[in-house]
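ok so heres the complex, two chains, lmk if somethin looks off
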Amino acid sequence: MINIKNLKVSVEEKEILKGINLQIPEGEIHAIMGRNGSGKSTLANTLAGNEKFEVTNGSIHMNAADITEMSPENRSLNGIFVCFQYPVAIPGVSMAYFLRSAINAHLKNQGKEEMDALEFLNQSKEILKKLTLDDSFLKRSINDGFSGGEKKKSEIFQLLSLNPKFAILDETDSGLDIDALKIVADGVKEFNGKKNSTLIITHYERLLEYINPDVVHVMIDGKIVKSGDMELARQVEEKGYSWLAK
Amino acid sequence: MNEIKNNSYNQFKKLGYPTKRLENWKFSNSNHLKKYNTIISDSDIDIKEYLKTKNTLCFVNGSFIKESLENCDFKNEILISNTMDIKEQDIMKMSENFNNEALFNLGIAKFNEGIFIEFKKGNKTHIAINIVNIYDKKSENMFAPTFNIFKLNKKNNVSICEEDVNHGFDSFNLRINKFICDDDSILNHGSIYQDSTQSNLLRYNYYKANTNTIINIDSFNYESSFNKDFIEIDLDKSGAEAIVNALNLTKNDEHTDNNILINHKSEHCNSSQNVRNILQNKSTSVFNGKVVVFDGAQKTDSNQSNKNLLLSKEATAHSNPQLEIYADDVQCGHGSTTGALDKNSIFYFQSRGINKEDATQILVKAFAHAVIKTFSDENIKNNAQDHIDKWMNE
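and the predicted structre for the whole thing:
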């Protein structure tokens, strides 16, 4: 599904990712753990196509397609979705208008008919219920005045509504209480149950305990230094990262 | 009136055309207005088309068309006379600031025929009037000054929506209005301006608000070569409230200019200004907004906001929000922002599959909608919503 080869990325001429190699097959859940500043969010933004993050070397393939130079919207239309760590607030644009525009952009790209307002409303209500969000959520401006938990749930709401092939969750677990964490974890499990692939970026192993990823990677200073199973996540939780940096 | 006109002309001669040395004209050029010196009163334009909309009063080249009154349901609810015949000094009295404006004086000196409308005492039913200002410009360099006065008596509830229609050559349209609002009255004054004849519009609107008066001012301008708007509101008595909402869309070399002065002269008065400009190409905008809270105007609540969205690197917005406060128990806020669309917001849309062009359209409309939703006049609200797409895609 996703094949990242020797990926090097700079931000304002400072190299952050220093040669990432990562393959995520269809249906698998991978997790990347790492300290603050290790390059995890840079990887998420690079996969989303944020132009602030300059790819200086390497490639990103999704199935057979080279998406390294692809525009953000075309990446999305090809099935990539990032749950952002700090999603931007956009006053004046309702969640409903935004999300329906996004869904219809995807449907149009697939040569399908646009989703009408009623169908959109019914689909949205079902997903919102699972995330314990009120229907009035649709009328609110995108992330404007949202609590930390609401922002994370908003990202999961969009994920489940767009149902991409490959999702990257950038610290979606941070700032969530235990109930919200379980709701988000259930959302991710539901998403992945549809044979999609997932990359979870996190500091902590508590979300991973709910989701049980297939592979856990540890990133230090822009490189993946170790890969393993859930046991690796537990070791990191217990011992920190220092022992892996040596 | 002739004495007033003579005095105004002398004042104009003394002051001369405004220069960039004056605060209110710092970013506006008046030189190009000098050539407009031909006053044309006669016109053979057929106004029937405009009278299809009920309750419409027509002005052609600044002169009132009496025939238009026949199609008005409210004709028995008003007293109408010629501004030239006003004898009462108080009604004629304008703001000192306007009296120091050269072109205001030129307008008073040169207007031919305006109207004084007084809404009858004791009428509490809502009266909605459309005013269509038709400019029939048969020759070049036409100058069309108008001077109208509207008096609302106690508890009158009036909506006035002004629209301009330009035919023929470019011109200099100078419009002066005074609104006197007695206790507990409500005035909604809206204006829509669009012109493809490269004409120049200069407006002086002066509002006097008494006890518990509510004044809503809505303004929507798009496609205007030169559009300069002076608004002065005196909140004279306790409980008066003024709300000014303006949305200006400019492109090419267009210039739009809002000069707003709100005088809080009494306690417990509220005011708000919400002016947004969206600029394309080499267009320019000016916001001179000022709130003065006089000594003793305690419990004033005032807010002033100007936001400018630049859709081109060559567009320029000048913003000058000011507060002058001489009372100590007041709540006043003001703010101004100028900038391009937020790249992070566009990226967020793109990351969900919405292309840059569509994202831009949605964000610009959201920016405009923040003003449109505050318009009290449904006609202006609908007009603005209808035109924003067209304006962006032209």
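quick notes: The mean pLDDT of chain A is 92. thats all i got rn
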